[in-house]
Amino acid sequence: MNPLEITATIRYLVPTGDKPVYIASTGGADAAMNIGADFEEHTVTIHDARQLDPAASLDRQGFTLVQHRTLVQDFYRLEAVRQDYEREICDLVLAASGGGEALVFDHTLRSDSREVRGERVTREPASVIHNDYTDASAVKRLRDLLPADEAERRLQRRFAIINLWRTVGSPVIRSPLALCDAASLGQADLVASERRAQDRIGELELVAWNPEHRWYYYPQMSLTEALLIKTFDSADDGRARRSIHTAFDNPRAPADAPPRESIESRLLVFYD
Fold first, then answer.
1. Domains in the chain and their CATH numbers?
2. Which of 128, 131, 164, 184 is the most exposed place for a label (fewest CB within 10 A)?
3. Which three-class secondary structure state does DSSP give residue 143?
4. Alpha carbon distance, N-terminus to C-terminus of the chain
5. How do residues 119-167 score in pLDDT, each as one tens digit?
6. Cα 207 from chain centroid (whole Å)
7. pTM for the complete prediction?
């Protein structure tokens, strides 16, 4: 057995036929998920994605790990260098995805430490299995972000939404991300769920248990690495269209492991 292959517990939705409602937190020490639904825990094997050969890709598994040395020194002061960082990650995502243009539209800082969240006013890890967009909400997000005429033009061609996730501090030991191989995901596993935030209402996908799911993680991600996660792809030609994912408690994390501190950035990617 690979020494970094682990057994861990992750949380699946219990479908009831009703549409779940997820209320996004606003950040702070007490930030916590608020979802009107029931969940059940399942123990799964989570494989070391670093051992995949060939390496995971956006179009096969729906995720990939890339090397990236950012010029950002302090992500808690990102606003001062935001334009420079967004240029960096647009170039990175376009190179990895084969896209022609990209637009960054969101940055979210998270921590599994109550103290860090209180000090930094950040959000909690997303610790239920989910995908950030349904087909309908991905289209709506594009329309919300672009002028009407440009949005309609963009919708005539392929587009995707890709998340870039990275640590902003120590290597990730506590609360890493588990990612499901898109080839093991069935459409019937996905449950459209309402997502309510302060400024808008959208949709995400929660996930019902399927023993066929194949789970992976990247042990001890460092500051020089970035994880790309495809959360939507309008192409319906057999390639991965989404990768469900979740934070999980790493049973091998030592008691004195540093807290997880991370940032995820979301990008619209347009193809020629």
1. 6-48+58-270 (2.60.120)
2. 184
3. helix
4. 43
5. 999 999 999 999 999 999 999 999 999 999 999 999 999 999 999 999 9
6. 14
7. 0.96
